[in-house]
Every structure is written in structure tokens, then in C-alpha cells.
Amino acid sequence: MVDGDPRPAGSDLDRSLNAQNQKGRRWLLFAGILALLAGLLASAPFVGRTLWTVLVWTALGALLVANVASHRSAARRGFFPLTFALGAFILALLLQGPVASWVLGPFCTAGRNCSVSGLVVLQLSITSFVVAPIVGLTLIRRQPLSTLYLGLGRCPRLGLAIGFLVFAASLAAAPVLSHTLFGGPVLTLSRLVALYPLAVGLAATNGVREELWFRGLMLPPSERTLGAAPANYLQALVFMSAHVGVTYTPFLLEFLLLTFGLGLAFGHLIQETGSLYGAIVAHAGVDVPIYIVYLAAT
Fold first, then answer.
1. Which of 31, 64, 146, 281 could be bridged to 163 by S-S, CB 3.0 to 4.6 A?
2. What is the rounded distance in angstroms from the CA atom of residue 149 to the CA atom of residue 276?
3. Can you give the residue ranges of every domain in the chain?
């Protein structure tokens, strides 16, 4: 160190940087655990309703504390967008459960034996109660919707072209996938043609909900904190964990691996194009076989 230089000696500076890095790693670990917990909570029909409610409120409370702590501390302020996003994630989760139970009442007879009208109303309701708090909280923070990747992005034509290519391939494969992967009946061509329009509509609303929820909300703050590739792996892990409790496939392990791969692919498409729209179209396509099975059973 030059005489009279007010900066700390190299060793002191190294220790200071190491301490900051250790704090950063602790916050990243905390955020990652909460993100994974959020995904597991979203997929936990096997957990009793009371315990589920306690866990969700506990996670939401922990995130509120983390938000306050990160917002007040200059050293931790960079983590505020990520903890805020996780809080919005769990708030949306908290809203859609009671809404689903309330909405399904008039349309379901035994458990999930619901009419077609019930499926439509349910899908529109839970989509609204996920999209609304995410968009609303973003606007309250005076952030543009482009921070959720809700914009044309850098390469809108490329994103939509890939999205519609995946959509078309998924529609062509839907009769086979609905039977082999999801255990649905073998359907006649006329029956498939009759089911396709509504299945596509339901899948489209689900594509909007899950792409905004898992990637539009989670990717931007994770990218700023972790970097692009780790952020993509984190959201894909949350996306996969949110499907742990699904009951619409007899091949759960294979389905979870497929879900993780799709999460990575959709996330990469969003990062490359700067927009959710291509991923929404692709996501809608791969969900069509699931809704064909649901509709065929009604």
C-alpha cells in the first residue's frame, strides 16, 4: 500500500470481501430453500389442509421478514427482488387453493369428479388469482411489466416461431401421449376433433399462469442474483417440485424428469428471446394431452 493511501491493506480488503461473499451465499441458500419449499407446497395434496395452511403462512412470514431485512440493509438490498418474488409466488399459491375449493363446489360431485363447466371455471379462476397478485405487486413497486418478461423482447418472431413449432408437434403427438403417458383412453378421430378446441383453450390459460408464475416472476431476480444459467436451473427445480403431487400420470418419475427438462427449455427460450410469449405457446401445446384426458373423462 502506498504511504498515505486511505484504502485498507490487501489482507483487510480480502477479509471484507470474503465476509460479504459468505453473507451473500447464506442469503442465496436461504432463497433457494424457500424457492424449493414453495414448489413443494404448490404440489402437496398429500399434506393435510391444516398443515398445508400453516406451512404456507410460515413461509410467507419468513419471506416478509427477509424482505424487510434485505430492504433495510445496503449489503443485502440486492437480494430484495428475489425475496420479493418468492413472497409473491407464495401469495399467489395461498390465493389459488381456497379459490379452487370455493369455485369447484357447484360443479363437482365427488372429489374431483367435475363437469366441463367446472374445469373451465376452475382454470380461469386460478389463472386470474395467480396473474393478478403478480402483476399487481409488480405495478405497486412501480416496475414495468417487462421485468416479468411480459413484452416483445429482443426476438419476438423467433420465440413465437419456436413456440408454435412445439405447439404443432405437441398437438400431433397428443393422441399418443394422452394414452401412453397419462393413461387416457384410446379415442376415435371424431372424439379427438371434438375435444381439441376446449383442450387447447384450457391449456392456453394454464400456459399463461405457469409461465408467468414460475419463470416471469422467478427468472429476472434470480438472474440478477445468481446469473442466467443458475437462475434457469433454480426455476426448473421449483417447476419440477410443483408437480411432485400430480395424480394424472402413472409414470411420476419419468414425468418429473420431463417437467424439469421442459422447465429448462422454456426458461432458456425466455432468456434468449427476452419474452414469455413463445414459451407460453409451447407450454400450452405440451399441456394439451393432459386436458384431453381430463375432458375425455367428463
1. 281
2. 6
3. 17-297
